[in-house]
Amino acid sequence: MEYIGCYMKEARWANAGYIPTVEEHKEVTTVSSGYKFTLIASFAAMGDVITDETFKWALTMPPLARSCCVLCRVMDDIVTHKVRRISNSYLSNAKT
After folding, report:
1. Mapping DSSP to helix (H, G, I), strand (E, B) and coil, where does residue 95 land?
2. Which of 1, 19, 38, 44 has the fewest CB atoms within 10 Å distance of its CB?
3. What is the tally of structural domains in the chain?
4. Per the domain annotation, does 25 fall within a domain?
5. Where does the Terpene synthase metal-binding domain start and stop, copy by copy (predicted)?
């Protein structure tokens, strides 16, 4: 539900023409990016080495998991910014 709620918040921002602050953007898009699911899928691919407790731990979004998601999202935003700058599109989706 959190995932869908974040997509809805992004849609409301877009429809209202609202440009979120960096902190608002990070809070919402860290969830909506789906990197949490990628992290969980990576654990699943490790097979029997990973226990149920590991999955439960990852689903609580501990600081390590959250940091991985934030890092991946920021890297994605940097690439998107560079591509948009090259194509002369809108430069940024967050206020600084």
Report:
1. strand
2. 1
3. 1
4. yes
5. 4-83
